[in-house]
Design goal:
Layout lengths: L2 H18 L7 H22 L10 H22 L1
Helix pairs in contact: 1-2, 1-3, 2-3
Membrane topology: Multi-pass membrane protein
Keywords: Cell membrane, Membrane, Transmembrane, Transmembrane helix
Organism: Mangrovibacter plantisponsor
């Protein structure tokens, strides 16, 4: 996937992660996008590490992995920030 696709995918994953785990985070929209993109990458790495397989393209499995990764990154971000 191209970088623009990962940004869009991360944006959606970040917004959904923020919706699932509401709370006050500094940075607003930009931080949400950055955490979402990082979460998508982390989720992809974790899924391949545990043998889920290759994560590529816009499909439901990749989206679920990206959202889970964004949730993990958001959780870690809040623990570090607090």
């Amino acid at each position: 996937m191209g970088i623009i696709s990962w940004i869009v995918f991360g944006l959606i994953a970040g917004i959904l992660a923020k919706w699932i785990m509401p709370g006050r985070d500094g940075g607003g929209f930009i931080v949400t996008v950055i955490l979402g993109v990082i979460g998508a990458v982390v989720g992809g790495w974790i899924s391949t590490f545990f043998g889920y397989g290759k994560v590529d393209g816009f499909n439901l499995g990749s989206f679920a992995v990206a959202v889970i990764g964004a949730l993990v990154v958001l959780f870690i971000y809040r623990k570090i920030k607090a």
